[in-house]
Amino acid sequence: MRSRRPCVKHFSHSHPLRPVEVKEEEELICSGCELDLSGSAYRCRKSSSCCDDFYLHRSCFELPKVLQLPMDHVSGHQHPLLLLDTPPKEDDDDEYPKFVCNACGDYGTGFTYRCSSTSCQSFNLHVTCAFLPNTIKHVDHQHPLSLFSSSTSLEIKGISFTCDVCRKQVPQNCWIYYCSECDYGTDLACTTTTNNNTYSVLPAGGGGRIQ
Q1: pTM over 0.85
Q2: Which residue of 4, 23, 26, 50 sits 20 to 30 Å from the alpha carbon of 93, by its own alpha carbon?
Q3: End-to-end distance of the chain based on CA atoms, in angstroms?
Q4: Residues 43-46: contacts with CB within 8 Å, 24+ apart?
Q5: Are 114 and 124 in contact (CB under 8 A)?
Q6: Is 57 helix (H, G, I), strand (E, B) or coil?
Q7: 165: which residues sit within 8 A by CB, 6+ positions away?
């Protein structure tokens, strides 16, 4: 349904965007976070083949351009992160620029939070991973799970970390949700997909997440 609210500009797109309400059955993808889109969103007002698929979640539209992670963040990263609409092309052979997220280990081609320092510009986060809470309640476990780096578990246990949901080994330095009392943990994918996005942020948790 078309909104009568005025069009707005966003740094990631050359044309004005208009607010829209997207239905789940439309099966659209956000051009920012690359996830399924429904609810309040923005789309390009131009009717052209190059812009027909440009949509943004309202939450992706409102992302801060500069993000400072907390001092005690699991990543240990202290430099400001800059929001980029597309990752820099680092290899001339790559047809499409992409990045590897330091949190989940997956590739991304959309919005990324990238370190502003020239000394560590290989540090990238999906916008959803950048706002993961410090503590969650998972439906498959009785205790709260805390955000850790898998490298921390490796140092403590001396072994590779394996997700207790999918049984896959977690790449070193990627993030996990972990209960130290039960030695139970999940990778980020199983926390959000196997759990059907039903975890809740506890009062002691961190910075929230993209809705």
Answers
A1: no
A2: 50
A3: 21
A4: 43/17, 43/18, 44/13, 44/15, 44/16, 44/17, 45/7, 45/15, 45/16, 45/17, 45/18, 46/15
A5: yes
A6: strand
A7: 140, 186, 187, 190, 194
Alpha carbon 15 to chain centroid, angstroms: 25
* DSSP 8-state class, residue 7: P
Phi and psi dihedrals of 61, rounded to 5? -60, -35
Helix (H, G, I), strand (E, B) or coil at 152: helix
> What single letter denotes the amino acid at residue 81?
L
Q: Give helix then strand counts, H and E, for the chain.
A: 4, 16
Segment 137-183, tens digit of pLDDT: 888 888 999 998 876 555 555 557 889 989 998 888 899 999 989 98
